[in-house]
From TrEMBL:
It comes from Quadrisphaera granulorum. InterPro entries: AlkZ-like. Keywords: DNA-binding. GO terms for molecular function: DNA binding. This is Winged helix DNA-binding protein. PANTHER family: LMO0824 PROTEIN, WINGED HELIX DNA-BINDING DOMAIN-CONTAINING PROTEIN.
Length: 384
């Protein structure tokens, strides 16, 4: 991959191997405890560290977040959704993510317009222009003024107002209004996540409307690389769905504030947060922290959060994680920082583990460690 980071912005502090990068990402993402960084105390802090967690599969997102906390409790993630500390919405890439309530407003305001522009033609093809979304918002505000409602209840209200009936229409209207920053998904009722008005559910001032976009984008850069680094400009472009020019400019602003550190790996410039220097200075502690077997959730940021995933798995292995390039990311087995296969739950109660190695068979000791890791996984909760 070509070097996308201007060398004049930040001087690299070290030249790393791919193995170093893979292990540092595990530590930055808080998938393993490190003697200095530790683990986030709870799910809100775990999500804040990553800034956004892909969450079109809500049960998998519960597991991904809980796996990054000492308690490893998926019920704590659900509680944070129910009480409004976490929300689920479409801030970028047209994809559902978990965010903290403090971050959802400004992230959607900053990144949503580009996602909306990308979706505009698809919406127009089914008759949804700006006027239609404005009309749908009036209906939603009326229904949600008294509190949360289910998607089905919202869809029925939209049908009653003259919109085409059906789940596809409900999804498109919900997606569009959430990407505009008007709606978010909040508390969970059974297997259904309820819709709420962003203006009443999110903290006052969380859209950060009085801060210039340049500073917000620099904040996004700094927090992404702190929670995902070492990562490249291309990784951030893919993750945020913004232009390379905008990302480079934001990197320069963040670097000028001392919020970004740089390393190199095989000729590529990679970025991390201020903690990166200390981690690089003591790579032995990073290697020790990342020894052993780890099972990640489906759609986990460890794989999905980057454009270039070769530190963790080869292109051939990536095709086994995302069969057919269909966007469905299987959960992976990580051994000493490197993905070695995929895994799945099986059995009538989904309480048994099946591991599919990328090649051959895994050593007996690794198989046994997989079983131990599976037993320690947070329990997946229902939800959509």
């Amino acid at each position: 991959m070509p070097d996308a980071t201007p060398r004049s912005v930040i001087s690299p502090i070290a030249d790393l191997t791919r193995d170093d990068v893979a292990r540092l990402r595990l530590v930055s993402q808080r998938l393993v405890p490190h003697p200095v960084l530790g683990l986030p105390p709870g799910p809100v802090e775990a999500v804040a560290n990553l800034l956004a967690v892909q969450a079109q599969d809500l049960p998998a997102a519960h597991v991904a977040v809980a796996s990054r906390t000492p308690g490893r409790d998926a019920a704590a993630v659900r509680a944070a959704l129910d009480d409004g500390r976490l929300v689920r919405t479409w801030p970028m890439r047209g994809t559902l993510h978990l965010l903290t309530a403090a971050d959802a407003g400004w992230m959607t305001r900053l990144l949503g317009p580009r996602a909306m522009a990308a979706a505009a033609k698809r919406w127009l093809d089914v008759g949804l222009d700006d006027a239609a979304f404005d009309r749908a918002l009036v209906v939603a505000r009326e229904l949600l003024a008294d509190g949360p409602a289910s998607r089905d209840e919202l869809g029925a209200a939209w049908t009653g107002a003259g919109f085409e009936p059906g789940s596809s229409t409900t999804y498109r209207l919900l997606n569009g209004l959430a990407t505009r920053g008007e709606l978010v998904l909040g508390p969970v009722r059974g297997a259904d996540q309820l819709v709420v008005l962003a203006s009443t559910w999110l903290p006052e001032g969380s859209r950060r409307e009085h801060e210039p976009d340049e500073m917000l984008f620099a904040d996004l850069v700094a927090r992404y690389v702190a929670g995902h680094g070492p990562a490249s400009v291309a990784d951030l472009v893919r993750w945020s769905y913004q232009t390379t020019g905008a990302v480079k400019k934001a990197v320069a602003v963040a670097a000028a504030s001392g919020l970004v550190a740089a390393v190199t790996c095989e000729g590529r410039s990679l970025l991390g947060g201020p903690d990166l220097a200390g981690l690089v200075a003591d790579l032995d502690s990073v290697r020790a922290a990342t020894e052993g077997v780890l099972l990640t959730a489906a759609f986990d940021e460890l794989v999905l959060g980057y454009a270039d995933r070769t530190a963790t798995l080869s292109p051939e292995e990536e095709r086994l994680v995302v069969p057919g390039g269909n966007g469905m990311f299987k959960p992976v087995v990580v051994v000493d920082g490197r993905a070695v296969g995929t895994w799945a739950r099986t059995g009538s109660k989904r309480d048994r583990l099946v591991v599919t190695p990328f090649a051959g068979t895994l050593p007996a000791a690794v198989e046994a460690a997989c079983q131990e890791a599976f037993a320690a996984l947070p329990a997946a909760l229902p939800g959509r």
